[in-house]
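Standup notes
- HV: blocked on the assembly model, inputs below
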Amino acid sequence: MSVDMYRITEQPYYRPVGDEVALYEAAYRHRIPVMLKGPTGSGKTRFVEYMAWRLARPLITVAAHEDMTAADLAGRFLLEPGRTVWHDGPVTLAVRHGAICYLDEIVEARQDTTVVIHPLTDARRMLPLEKRNEILAAHPDFQLVISYNPGYQSAVKDLKESTKQRFVAIDFVYPPPAIEQEIVMRESGVDASDARLLVEIATRSRNLRGQGLDEGASTRMLVHAGRLLVAGVRPAAAVDAAIVLPMTDDAEMRAALRDAIAACL
Ligand SMILES: Nc1ncnc2c1ncn2[C@@H]1O[C@H](COP(=O)(O)OP(=O)(O)OP(=O)(O)O)[C@@H](O)[C@H]1O
Ligand SMILES: [Mg+2]
């Protein structure tokens, strides 16, 4: 199977916030696995897409989940008329063809699944395919990237120490206002004054963190609100639909959020 369908042909828009591009390039040069940490909607996925484009590597993304097994990552034999045929899983495909493999929300996977990546992410750089009695050496261009949302998971849903310590980490935070405005303008098409307003709303919601909200409004939410504005939705309705309602079901919390936001509108 070819990995051409995983190539990113057009430059994704990514606005750097710090030295993350240089850091990633340095890690990639040495094929060190990278861990992207940060809240939802802070640009982790967009960043990987951008780096894969920049480094001209195919990008194979896997959304990790609780029921994911080692075979879902490595591959399995499937029954076809008259024979069984081996199908590479996404990690095997990336290892074989030298892609960047992005395991999104890695903590969702069970720890016995996660250890599959251990021999790949140390000096061995190999993937044992037990079912095939084969040990696959990683293509020289292969690299593993995982994302990790430090806020939400409980202690039970943490990564093993032996997994964590294989990665260099890049921390994602919501960007400083001027940069976030630039992103919201570019991604949604709102003008500078609307972008400034949306970022101000985000700042206020982020100040309510820990007072009933786990997270403030993400950059993603601001982009959504901006798109509604551009489509002609009234500001109060757009902000409610894109920010307040998705964030909380709690009536008091919604009221508190609307209060905090009202001053901006
Ligand atoms: N630095 C950035 N440059 C360009 N766009 C950005 C940036 N940060 C956030 N965005 C915008 O925010 C949206 C959400 O970002 P992204 O999907 O990368 O978040 P994420 O960190 O992967 O979130 P999750 O943890 O929920 O998967 C993007 O689609 C993009 O519109
Ligand atoms: Mg993502």
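- HV (later): unblocked. The chain has eleven helices and nine strands. The mean pLDDT is 94.
- Next: hand off to the docking folks.
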